[in-house]
Amino acid sequence: MTDFPLGTRAVPDAWDRRGLPAWTYRSEALLALERERLFLTHWQVAGHVNDIPAPGDWFAFDMPGERAVVMRGEDGQVRAFHNLCRHRGARVVDGARGHCRGAVVCPFHGWVYNLDGSLRGAARPSTFGAMDRAAFGLKPVEMEVFHGFVFLRFAPGPQPAVADLLAPFAADFAAYRAGGLLPAERSHWAFDLPVNWKSVRDVDNEGYHVALAHPGLQELYGRTYRDLHLDDGLSVSVGWFGDAPGRGWSVRRYLRHAPARPDLPPHLRRAWTYYGLFPNAVFAFTPEAAQFYQELPVAPGLTRLTGRMYRGPDEARATRIARYLAWRIDRATSAEDRQLSVWSDESMRSAAFEGFHLSDLEYGLRRHHDALRRILPVMTLPEAPAEGEIARRNDELIDRSTRPG
What we know:
Elements: H1 28-39, E1 44-48, E2 57-63, E3 66-72, E4 78-82, E5 97-99, E6 104-105, E7 112-113, E8 119-121, E9 142-146, E10 149-153, H2 162-165, H3 170-175, E11 182-193, H4 197-204, H5 210-213, H6 215-222, E12 226-229, E13 234-240, H7 249-257, H8 266-269, E14 271-277, E15 281-286, E16 289-299, E17 302-311, H9 317-347, H10 363-375, H11 390-402
């Protein structure tokens, strides 16, 4: 088995094996705090610069309570804006992706914006009196690009610049030539699952379940799978394939067609790697493809699962076949994880549920819960406060933790 060059935080000999209390998966007031202080203030991956190769190309990214559009300007620069007309707040573009020919026209009243976000003109401008067009451009959204991937943040937050935050991943992303990835045929996907977002992340944050719940992955790489726990909310999960013949149709044929990739460093050549970013994003790379996926909360019991898939340029036929076979394996794995998320989430509503008791192989789940509790210490309370008291109790706990002495 190949060694992975990144170190991992060791699992302590003695640690608190409990997880979050069940009430945190059911509370509307807590979800409002999570939206405000977690999702809007942490970097969210929205797409890739090659999703919008030509001036006027755009893709949309919606978050709980916010919406953005990422667009390539006439100058070739990629920019992000609030998808919000400065007149009445309508969406200036509608849909998942599209193209604007030279300008963005709000479909509500026809305000026209240049591709750099500046206001070209309002419809019937004389009805607005003395209006300074320079003051009414589309509002920018904070954006950074890391090896081609576009990250957005809707409000200032605790994470550093993306390049600094993801520095431990930089060498691998460069080796995978992530900056040159192209959207796959089935690029963007999204659907809703009737669970709390944390139930999805709880399943994805540990590999203890792989051996039993994911027969395809177990057959492909389960003997070599490992989780690495890094600092700053980062993690890596990796499994190396090719040490045993495949039995299932997809795995057997994938092993036959997977590209050798001698250009990759040894730890990536025959690996499926998953790079996790707190609070809700994962980048998955295989020798023939890449994708990212994330979960976005809609309601306490409803989560939007979404992601985008990519391929390399100048793809050979065998590589394209391998990518299809990897997609088949991943499709089955995703369905299995969705069922596990539903079962896990159901338990949070049962009076018989007495809390988590975690294995050392589930330490990544505990680290995720600890990170949530640091931001929202109200999650440390074993019993749910009254809904109207949750925000106040959270602020009270923050104030207490920062008080001198």
